[in-house]
């Protein structure tokens, strides 16, 4: 009996020892399974607080709003308020980031036309404050003008320029158009509806409603898109009046450059203007969204460009030579400012290689141009692939410098006057830019300063100081 008990106790002790030695051995270190990284289990406090609100709270806020626009809250408007403050807050935040780019322009234009300030919120519904956005039916710009309506208000459209994307022109046109619609219907809500679907559709809805003349009275007779258009405008108007109540704030606002308009009165490319003025091309594009292909064509040469304020003084002081150089080849880079005069044979070779681009002026004909540049009409026609003698104002002609002996024409002359200054006699076809090319280290700006020139106009036989 004792032997059996001893054996049983020994078995239990040995079995227990084996189990505990494996589970609690001091030599075996316990390691927790790596199911999650440390970063994953750290608490995350980055969340956005979206305040709750009720229909009654919104109604009370609407009643206290100071606005000239009619605004009667209903379920349709309330649903859009919920959408823009809860479900699509990102869109509203995008609008807040852009609004300071354009709202000052909208406000001043609306004030000038004696219109309600809150109409500025219509551009949010139209374009999301993107001046280059295009709709599926071809409307363009901040105020989404169709080509025909844009032309009615003086906005031109071509391959290189679309005035509908110009903030100033399109805002002025939108104010005039909306004001005319208000005079037509005597109600701002109906004017907004007509801006969206056209006055013809609004008149049709009025007739079908039995002659009623309020938006919500003709609501069911309007096109489906317009039924949501005005409520969205009113929802956005409410939201931007009550940003704090919905915890909406500008996180990364964008502000408009201080600019001034400058007119160059000629076709140009942004690349060439940037080369001459050290302006950033992307800045030029942002400030002039109506220029589509980085260039102003001959047909739009009178349009003014928005230039950053910091560059305005420099451009105005040097406008003549900048304008003169915009149509020429890139300016040569020189190793030093020292003036090096070439001998006559070298100058003659330069003239022979040089190509002049001449812009046809009013009153010009091929015979007159050929005589002024000492070439023949046949040469002009050959160089420019002309089949007749007809030319038009603004047309550009390629003219190669004449080649001949010194006995038949005047070679460009360099002389020294009584004051020890080097002078140059202007030849037919010369321009300040061409003359600057003939002398290393000489620039158009230096020529103007040395000769007290206020413009780039020179004439054959004129004597210029060159150093």
Automatic annotation (TrEMBL):
<feature type="domain" description="LysM">
    <location>
        <begin position="422"/>
        <end position="466"/>
    </location>
</feature>
<feature type="domain" description="LysM">
    <location>
        <begin position="356"/>
        <end position="399"/>
    </location>
</feature>
<dbReference type="InterPro" id="IPR036779">
    <property type="entry name" value="LysM_dom_sf"/>
</dbReference>
<dbReference type="Pfam" id="PF01464">
    <property type="entry name" value="SLT"/>
</dbReference>
<keyword id="KW-0732">Signal</keyword>
<dbReference type="Pfam" id="PF01476">
    <property type="entry name" value="LysM"/>
</dbReference>
<feature type="signal peptide">
    <location>
        <begin position="1"/>
        <end position="25"/>
    </location>
</feature>
<dbReference type="InterPro" id="IPR023346">
    <property type="entry name" value="Lysozyme-like_dom_sf"/>
</dbReference>
<dbReference type="InterPro" id="IPR008258">
    <property type="entry name" value="Transglycosylase_SLT_dom_1"/>
</dbReference>
<dbReference type="InterPro" id="IPR000189">
    <property type="entry name" value="Transglyc_AS"/>
</dbReference>
<protein>
    <submittedName>
        <fullName>Transglycosylase SLT domain-containing protein</fullName>
    </submittedName>
</protein>
<dbReference type="InterPro" id="IPR018392">
    <property type="entry name" value="LysM"/>
</dbReference>
<comment type="similarity">
    <text>Belongs to the transglycosylase Slt family.</text>
</comment>
